[in-house]
Amino acid sequence: MQSAARDARHTWQTSLTWIGDRASLQAADRTPIGVTIPPQFGGPGDQWSPEELLIGAAQSCTVATFISLAKRRGVGIVSVSSSGRGTVARSDTGMSFSEVTLELRVIIEDDKQRDAVAALVERAHRGCIVSSSLRCPVTVTAVVDAIGGRAHGSEGRP
User: What is the dihedral of CA 131, 134, 139, 140, to 10 degrees?
Assistant: First the structure.
């Protein structure tokens, strides 16, 4: 029997209501997210911008994919934190993201699993649906540290 995650097609639905300078982004049974135009484009910038949501979507998708892969492989993950950065620039087709960079910090239980973690970060990067859907390069780097061990970095593909 095929799992739901491996089905060929999935659909998500959201709704957006924009009043004045702000919007409310919603999905069924979820807490609404406040959205506004960023100050770089003349908005108040006091809530999430669509640009921040895009970076956050690539970031959370990559980390969620990594966690899922690590669980299936039995890798002892203590914690994962990340930061994301995206650059928007003018191109021949208008303003668009020119790059997204994600930096993961992974704390593992066993230093012997460091190489496995680096491989899983790369697989998660390739398997992230959101990043794979973007036109711009997405680079993922990871610093892996074992409890009581030293930090080691790795860089994923752009």
Answer: -10
Residue 19 within a domain: yes
**Backbone Cα Rg of the chain:** 18
Q: Are residues 38 and 76 in the same domain?
A: no
Q: From first to last of the 158 residues of the chain, give the pLDDT tens digit.
A: 345 566 789 999 999 999 999 999 999 999 999 999 999 999 999 999 999 999 999 999 999 999 999 999 999 999 999 999 999 999 898 999 999 999 999 999 999 999 999 999 999 999 999 999 999 999 999 999 998 655 566 554 44
**CB burial string 32-55: b at 16+ within 10 A, e below:** ebebbbbeeeeeeeebbbebeebb
Q: Do 56 and 109 belong to one domain?
A: yes
Tell me how many domains the chain contains.
2
Can you give the residue range of the structural domain that contains 27? 11-48
| Single-letter amino acid code for the residue at 30 | R
The model's pTM: 0.87
DSSP three-state, residue 105: strand
4 class by beta-carbon count within 10 Å (0-12 exposed, 13-18 middle, 19+ buried)? exposed
Is the separation of the CB atoms in 62 and 102 below 8 Å?
yes
